[in-house]
Amino acid sequence: MTALRIRLFILVAGVTMLVWAGAAGWTSFSTRAEVQRVLDGRLVEAARMVAALDIPASGPVRRLAPAPYSRQLSCQIWSLNGALIGQSTGAPDAPLAGGAPGFSSRQIGDEQWRVYTHVDAARGIRVMVGDSLAVRQHLVNDLMLGLLLPAAAGLVALAVLLWFGVRSGLAPLGRVARAIELRSPHTLEPLAVEPVPEELRPLVQAMDDLLARLEGARRAERDFVANAAHELQTPLAGLKTQAEVARRATDPAMRDHALERIAISVGRTSRLVRQLLELARQEGREAEPADCFARVRDVVNGVVGDYAHLAANGSRSIITACGLRDVDLAIDAEALRLALGNLVENALHHGGKGPVRIECAANDGLELRVIDGGAGIAAEEVERVRRRFERGPRAMSGGTGLGLSIVEAAIAPAQGVLEFRPDNAGFAAVLRFPSNRVRISSDGAS
Amino acid sequence: MRILLVEDDDILRDGIVVGLGLEGFEVDAVACLADARAAIGDHAGVVLDIGLPDGSGLDLLAEWRRAGVEIPVLLLTARDMVADRVEGLDRGADDYLGKPFDLTELSARLRAIMRRASGRASGDLELGALIISEARRSVALDGEEIAVSRREFAILHALAERPGHVLSRSQLEDRIYGWQEEIESNAVEVHIHKLRAKLGRSRIETVRGEGYRITRT
């Protein structure tokens, strides 16, 4: 924060200084030139004025009365044959210039002179008027100082103003930073910084969106843990009660019965825990990369193999009508197997007496249908059974109510959706995937 | 003491039926709201689970209370949340118990709500020199402990709850036998006979054509 402020200040102050220095340089240069021009003009005028005086070309050397500005201007009047006719007080005795008319410079003693020479041939005189360059320089310096000193003082004031300006300009940034700083690490509330300047709005907005998503995820996690704990209470209560019965049973048959129930309940409870873990794992998966393909037919065959035993136990069969030899789906093969397997298991448990059919269809996306001969789920029940931990009205004991949630979580990364609909043969649970996740390979032989 | 249990988890249901049986209760058990509606009758108490496959036990409870069913109800709650318990009690439950629970606690609480329903605060019924302890299921006469069977205790307890009040044979049968049990036609008479042998003949009176009652002293 401070770093940004200092950076901005240095940048603005630096640029200001640069512009100021340029302006000062330019002013100094042009002022100097102007002063030279004006002073040169004064020399010319003074020389002409002196020449216009009625001064005899010969006679004793005159001393002109010292004028208030004599220290600045020195004047000599020479005859054309080289005799000094007159000079101003303070003027050096040596000739100020060589004699040629016009401007010239000369070093006399340790002083540098700027001289204008006016020649009046008719009267036989030569007038030389000169400025000491040191005096001129002094004048220019005084002038420059008078111009630049107030400007330099202004520069200091400007720097102070800039500093406070930058600070107050960046104040909203400071407010946002403070709002973030002061947050407890456990709150995921929106930042609530107002007013926010337009430039910061996207940042604050993005931050708030992220916080909202995090909050949603955290709430889902908390609900999940609460629900999971809740779901475990009932089987634990059953286990505890049966254990107590076994402990207190007086006759061996009662004890055996209780122990048998305990064994069954442990099996069911561990299945529940397994499904909870499976659901957590499926929900934790990142969005699927679109280049990880599963061969649909292989997965279907795998699922048939997985559940052949369960089907045979109930004198049922699993039939596949899946002609798609060459269709690949962009999904993790294990996830698809898990989803399809759960549906097949549901069909085996609830789907009446007939065989369970798995059908595939690949027009406009891919559909995998698991069809059973059962009554299915009434339309008004569908929303309920989709909810986590909700069992259908004819649920088998020991069902966890998690199967459909697992199915949905498993296919969600591949943009798959789960649908239920009546089928002419019975009831169909359908996994549907959009066409952009489906690839038909050219080598149909595999 | 015949009670109705409404619980959908079959293992827990079975455990409670057997366990409360060990505690001296006769338990009729059902797994859903529809069956519970059909089954509720002459029960001394109900153990009701909240989350049932065809709805919430709380709704059934409210329905019963509206219909004037005053049988004491103990709720089983898996969600150990204050809001749930408060709602349960507000809807007419007499007590609640969070899962998992102790069988002994369940039976103690059941006895307590049934006792409160019959207007008594103490767990002991005192009829002069005869003291019937619900918690210990024991009977004492003149300070002497008397051994009684489960059924004998149930009949004695049923009669002692309202001394002087006549209970018919079928009412007594309802109080002490579950649905599935075969009842021999003279079972109640046999139990009464044995009780009289243990407590003295005058303690339980026969009201001809009506049934039995217990005397106050």
From TrEMBL, chain A:
Q: Which residues cross the membrane?
A: 143-166
What keywords are assigned to this protein? Answer: ATP-binding, Kinase, Membrane, Nucleotide-binding, Phosphoprotein, Transferase, Transmembrane, Transmembrane helix, Two-component regulatory system
Q: Which residues form the Histidine kinase domain?
A: 227-437
Coiled-coil features, chain-numbered ranges: none
The enzyme's E.C. designation: 2.7.13.3
Q: What InterPro entries does this protein's entry cite?
A: 2CSK_N, HAMP_dom, HATPase_C_sf, HATPase_dom, His_kinase_dom, HisK_dim/P_dom, HisK_dim/P_sf, Sig_transdc_His_kin-like_C
Membrane topology classification: Multi-pass membrane protein
Q: Tell me where in or outside the cell this protein is found.
A: Membrane
- Record's protein name: histidine kinase
Q: Which organism is it from?
A: Sphingobium terrigena
TrEMBL record, chain B:
Which molecular function GO terms apply here? phosphorelay response regulator activity; transcription cis-regulatory region binding
What is the annotated localization of this protein?
Cytoplasm
SUPFAM superfamilies according to UniProt: CheY-like (SSF52172)
Give the CC-aspect GO terms. Answer: cytosol; protein-DNA complex
UniProt KW keywords: Cytoplasm, DNA-binding, Phosphoprotein, Transcription, Transcription regulation, Two-component regulatory system
The family database entries (CDD domains) matched by this protein are listed as:
REC_OmpR_PmrA-like, trans_reg_C
List the stretches of this chain annotated as a DNA-binding region.
122-216
What species is this protein from?
Sphingobium terrigena
Q: Locate the OmpR/PhoB-type domain: which residues? A: 122-216
Q: Name one process (GO BP) from the record.
A: regulation of DNA-templated transcription
Per the record, residues carrying 4-aspartylphosphate are 49
Q: What is this protein called?
A: Response regulator
Q: Which residues form the Response regulatory domain?
A: 2-114
Principal location class: cytoplasm
Q: Which Pfam families match?
A: Response_reg, Trans_reg_C
